[in-house]
Give the backbone structure.
Amino acid sequence: MECTDENIISLIQQLDRRSEYQGIGCLKKCEHKTYGVLLKMSLQDVDERKSIFYHSMAEFIIQVRRKKFVLTGEAKICTYLTEIARRKWLNNSKKNNKLDSLPENLKETITTTEGENNSGEQIKKALQQLDEKDRDILVMFYFYDMDLEEYSKQIGISYDATKKRISRARTRLKNILKPIQH
Amino acid sequence: MKVSFEILELIKRYVKGEGSDEERRTLEQLLVEQPELQEEIDLAKMLVKETEELERQRILDMIESTDSPSEEEVEIAPPSSTSIFSNKKIWWILIGFLIALIALLGWWKMKSAPLEKKVYAFQQNTYIIPSNENFLRGSTSMTTLDEAYREYVLKDYKKSLSLLQLFSDQDSLYLQSLYLKGHNFYLTQNYRKSIEVFDEILSKKELGNYYAPDWDNIGWTRILAKLSEEENFENNKTALKKEVSDFLKVANPTDVYFQNAKQLEGLLD
């Protein structure tokens, strides 16, 4: 399949892993453009450039699935992706500058307390213990806010079956959480 | 606690800040009636946050799994101790070893091949096309010869031969035309004709000719034609050796034909 903007969007919107991989493969073609812009912004570190590009790709995929990105005649995916990367790098730089200006003891406090959340960790672990189908449907429901009728059509089950699946996945998650919380 | 799907959706919209004022009021009312719903709201908050992190990480893992290391990474990566095959040097050594092995096998095959095969291989590698220097002189008949030479180079031997038929034995370029004819016959595997033509030229060598062909090329191509014509090398080895030895007597010791003949002499011994 040719990596046109329309095809990339269509691949990302499909829910199977194969299409997802193909979409990622196509998006990687924007690599040079993004690296070029980041280099112009004095980002010399190869690993950091790559990391920003990958995070931007992930962000783009999420935006497409959440229907935050709509392809118009003028928009070019690589330009959009590069813009996400540019903003990410600017935000990272600002954050690093702020951290650098803090005294060492405060810096440590901030970095160690960030992300420390027991119940969050428990849910994360419980989600990881779920099987892929259950996890996927919870991600679709809670994160992507996907239209359930559309989702049902895509995976080939009825609307009611989708609702049941979500309820079942939640019950299984709660069952995993129970012994952890006790 | 059993919660209906509609309430689940209401809670989700509420925690995401997407619900309408009416929905918010409905949920607050429900919370008063069923305080245990608070637990569901907390869970929904966590799920919204954690499913996002989980999904981002899953996509990132997928992206990284499709990654191929850049050149910079290959250079700075420490040598892996898990497998010797991940080391680039090992691969180069293996490739070098394989090439050497193939060359050795080729040499051994050549060495142990019957004389016929050895001579055949030798013959394939030592045929030399005549130089066009002798053909480009600029007269009308020369243009025909030049055309014949061009067709010969383009491998249209039939056309080349038909052009060469235009030369009579009275023509000053007759020997030149025979020279090219001999080569055309040789390459069309008409070895007998090729030998006949070359013999005719060689018989006129003593007469002297301004447009003299390359005598050593003729002598050598004639030997190659002889080799190709022979069906049984073992039986005709003596005759072939004599041909080579006669050629060596007249050939220029500094040219490539002489060196080739010397090698062939060694092969036939």
